[in-house]
Amino acid sequence: xxxxxxxxxxxxxxxxxxxxxxxxxxxxxxxxxxxxxxxxxxxxxxxxxxxxxxxxxxxxxxxxxxxxxxxxxxxxxxxxxxxxxxxxxxxxxxxxxxxxxxxxxxxxxxxxxxxxxxxxxxxxxxxxxxxxxxxxxxxxxxxxxxxxxxxxxxxxxxxxxxxxxxxxxxxxxxxxxxxxxxxxxxxx
Length: 188
Description:
single chain; alpha/beta; 8-stranded parallel barrel; globular
């Protein structure tokens, strides 16, 4: 587990998840310390990451959402070599494993749609060993409580979190942090 990354999340438990350059500009006016980059392509991801790093923030690139990148481990090598990203976000266990080998921070994203998906989390964590997991949709206090009791990986709740009440409810349920594209949550 990467303790520097965990400390950065604990210091700023609302994570800005940005999906456009306009959203990034607005996020950079907040006090958010960790930014999830959910947009871009192979040609501009280096510039996007550079903007985040120049502002002194932790830059996490969601590999599954960057146009032009595939789903093979070589994409992690590309991010490491050609950007200054601190880490990656992905749903794919092999990419998490490769990122850990390269010393990048890792967030494995899980969509909890039913009990089968919930049970699958434990199996995948046994092989991928991410620094943290992100669970979507984030507004599931009972599920977050069960998950934090089941696994020993810090949990980020993401998706559908829209206001201060949602943020506090998920943190109270045991989430270490929340990630949100909702700009109102960035300034709580």
